[in-house]
Amino acid sequence: MAVRRQPSSTSLSRYATAKSPGVDLYNGSTNRDFCNSFWGVGDAGVNILFARMRGAIRTTDELRNFWKERAAIEERYANELVNLAKATLGKDEIGELRNSLDTLRLETEKQGAAHLTLASQIQTELEGQTAALLNKQITHRKNLQAPLEKRFKVKQTQESYVLKAREKYESDCLRIASYSQQIAVNPGKDNERLQLKLRRAQQTVQANEKDFANFTKTVLDMIPGWEKDWKDFCDGSQDLEEDRLDFMKDIAWMYANAVSTLCVSDDQSCERIRTVLDQLEPDKDVENFVHEYGTGNEIPDPPVFVPYPAQQPDGSSKPKPGTRPAQFERASGRPAPAYQTEPEIVANINASSVDLPASASVVPERVDSQSSDGGSLRSGAVYQNSELNGSVSHAAINGRSMAPQQQSPPPPQHSPPPPQQQSPPPPPPPQQQLPPPPQQQQPPPSTWQPEPEQQSMSLLRRVSGPLPPQPPMQAPYQEPRAPTPPQEEGGPILFYVKALYDYTATIDEEFDFQAGDVIAVTATPDDGWWSGELLDEARREEGRHVFPSNFVCLF
Q: pLDDT > 70: what percent of the chain?
């Protein structure tokens, strides 16, 4: 918890007074210049303006210290960034990953240089200009305020003398009047004593009257000069305060601009890093690594024992080393992505080389199942084939798995078809004949075969098999459905999808979209009718938030 600063001579809080309602301190004047606003009874405005100017100096000094500390922090951070950029990073890497890490170090060094420039700018421009204003304020205080404060104390002292002399003079006058009245009322034996007191009082009143007149004359002679000096001080203080307030606004604005420029520079560095990372494709880097540094797929056979009687002196009995090609199936432990879009399914199927029987049917649907190792399998298509005797039935197709999975619920069965007067979704590209799978060459005979236990163990692991071919995707046909209660609007955005086809709403809670539109998804019910909203605010309509999920893909 911050400690509250105690009131000091620079604080204006002790001079704050409650304003009386209905009392106009300025007598109807609208002028609010310092030279017309800090007078009052007993010179009440003098101490307030003095405190204001002392507080202004203190604020400027605090701001100068702020710039000093801010520049030091920025300089330390910049030096740490530069030292970090000099550290070794990715020395053993190759390809695009090496390029990305080099760019990361280079941009970190540039960020350090940008922060060092900001530290220098704060020191030279912000701190330097603030120090110049502080010197100007200190000069004003020494040359104008300090002498005027001394004259104000002298004026207050003379005014106190006048008050004391007036009190004595008025007291003597009252005594003389009392003695004169007593002498007139009681002309008896006390007459001589009263006469003596009266003469003494008359002598005292003459001295006090003289002092009162002298002190009053001194104050009267001092007032014109004081008023002139105070008026000049008020004008100079107002000029200095206006300059200071303008300076404070400008200097804070310069600081915000400098930091904003640095943020833009950092964002540009990050964008350059992202641009380089766009070129980094892990699969391609792995392939390049194998291409440049791979040692081939020939596995040497184990040495063969040749008994001593069978050996010939000329070495002809020595067996020649044999090799066999590596034909393993990769067993990957990486979890597959939890969602796969329809274009990704088509691309994976077109790139595969596994033939399915002609009776195998492909039902595109969203599959959300869990793998045996706890990771979620990528959503894809479910292949159903009655001729495969369950060996390929309900196989979830993804980039790495052919493991049997449970079939997920079918897609929305009540989907609104396009109106007859409107054109249907754009037709899919013409069906092309898939090229036959490449015929793999038979490896040369090998003298070594794996053990049966190794074969059984390899079948138990999750292997990466080629994908079966799939006919081109057709635009999903949607049948009319009954209106469903709308999902809660304004929910958190789960992910973004991109429309594959045009869609025209059939009920009030649905919305129209075109192919290529981006939609923010807020809910994904199991019936296949999701909730979301268009990112295009010009075409977004309040209360319309439902759309078919099989018309979109992950963005």
A: 64
Amino acid code (one letter) for 407 = Q
- Residue among 197, 216, 211, 208 at smallest CA distance from 169: 208
Report the relative pairing of strands 395-396 and 529-534 from DSSP bridges: unpaired
What's the token pair of residue 336? 């597959």
Residues of the chain with pLDDT under 70: 1-11, 13, 15-20, 22, 24, 26-27, 187-189, 306, 308-319, 336-490
Locate 475 and state its tokens.
């635009």
Q: Is the dihedral angle over the CA atoms 36, 37, 41, 42 positive or is it negative? A: negative
Token representation of residue 54: 């002392």
Instruction: Pick the closest to residue 552 from 508, 507, 494 (CA basis).
Output: 494
352 near 461, Cβ under 8 Å? Answer: no
pTM: 0.53
Rounded Cα gap, residues 389 and 403, in angstroms: 15
- DSSP alpha helix (H) spans, 122-145: 128-140
* Strand intervals (E) in 409-511: 495-499
Within 10 angstroms of residue 110's Cβ, the number of other Cβ atoms is: 18
Place of tokens 């004003």: 140
Please give the Cα distance from 376 to 485 (Å, whole number): 30
